[in-house]
Amino acid sequence: MAVDIKNLNHKQLNELISKAQLRQEDIRKESVGKLREKIHALVKAEGFTLEDIFGRGKATRKSGGTVPPKYRNPADPAQTWSGRGKRPHWFNNALKAGKKEKDLLI
Fold first, then answer.
1. What phi, psi does 49 have (nearest 5°)?
2. Which phi and psi (to 5°) does residue 77 adopt?
3. pLDDT value of position 80
4. DSSP codes, the chain
5. Mean pLDDT computed over 10-25
6. pLDDT tens-digit profile of 35-49?
7. Measuring CA to CA, how many Å separate 57 from each of 36, 54, 60, 70?
8. Of the candidates 35, 13, 32, which has an alpha carbon nearest to the alpha carbon of residue 24?
């Protein structure tokens, strides 16, 4: 099926490109499906599951956990800092006043 693209106008050419891209995506999806089936069959033939081989999908990162405070503001004991992230102003001010990090440890 040879298409003479020299005789196509702008609209026809865009339509051809669009159809070709859709067909290309269909072929890709078919290939991926066939490959997926082959992988499933191979894994099953070896006596494993996909989870055994590839794990349980995307690795999830634990978040939302709180870290216990490591430093306390001597001027206001309610102010604490875990030592992670940006230093609080009270911590920087204490260091400028001559305190050492170990002096602020809880």
1. -110, 165
2. -60, -15
3. 94
4. ----GGG--HHHHHHHHHHHHHHHHHHHHHHHHHHHHHHHHHHHHTT--HHHHH-SSSPPPP-S------EE-SS-TT-EE-S-SSPPHHHHHHHHTT--GGGGB-
5. 95
6. 999 999 999 999 999
7. 15, 7, 9, 35
8. 32
Task: Give residue-wise pLDDT tens across range 32-90.
Answer: 999 999 999 999 999 999 888 888 766 666 666 788 999 999 889 899 999 999 999 99
Q: How distant is the alpha carbon of residue 53 from its chain centre? A: 20
Would you kindly state where each structural domain of the chain is located, as residue ranges?
Answer: 8-54, 71-104
pLDDT at site 55: 83
Q: What is the rounded CA–CA span in Å between residue 7 and residue 13?
A: 9
95: tokens are 């260091």
